[in-house]
Amino acid sequence: MGEPLPFGLIADEYDRRRPAPPEDLVDDLERLGGSTLDVGCGTGKAAVALIERGLTVLGLEPDERMAAVARSHGVPVEIGAFESWDDGGRRFDLLTFADSWHWVDPVGGVTRSAELLRPGGMVARFWNAHTVDPDVIETFDALYRRHAPEIPRVWEPGDGALIRLVRTADGEPFGQSGNFAPVQTHMYRSETVRTADDWVATVATTSDHLRLGDRLGPLLTELHAAIEGLGGALRVRRSTILALSRRL
């Protein structure tokens, strides 16, 4: 968990660059059905996908500028932090956290989830990881060691890193709660080709890169040049892990 960054400053670029959830993950969430609260909905990537499947979705987002973009896509959004939001007595069948659980206090978040869910309702948390080819990894490693050594090897996490994330104290507090059944996990995989322009613009919207401040520009310039030198595009494999927790 950490202090949320002002993603609203880059809301339009965030919306343009961040991918929607995998279709097969959305299929599984659609089957859960019911009224949905999308927590930390951002610009509505997950919410839009669920609304298109016929689910009734309310977005909850702390940043008004991000919420404005989500509303422009037809997502109803209320402003607030998950732990302190005034729910007005409303209860839900599904809570979704699309790469947003790490902004939630894990202990308070479990308690709050239990309060907001009807019995039998589900919490769906999901995270993404991206892997590139070995020659790209070698090139990226050298650049990040020089410009941003504190950023982990986000381009080579693999499935194991995602599974460990779910099992950590912050990632898997539901298994320690008497209000939820044991966590179930599902993995989804997809592959895309990303141009140098697209890759650089996308990583610039992530929290670890936004924290670089004045170091971000030089890193992005060298990343772009390196990708162009490797042929101008990357083959990117995405793994997405879904952790489902059922309210008892």
TrEMBL record:
The keyword Transferase applies. One of its GO terms (molecular function) is S-adenosylmethionine-dependent methyltransferase activity. SUPFAM superfamilies: S-adenosyl-L-methionine-dependent methyltransferases. Transmembrane segments: none annotated. Keywords: Methyltransferase, Transferase. It comes from the Bacteria. One of its GO terms (biological process) is methylation. Residues 37-121 form the Methyltransferase domain. Pfam families: Methyltransf_25 (PF13649). This is Methyltransferase family protein.
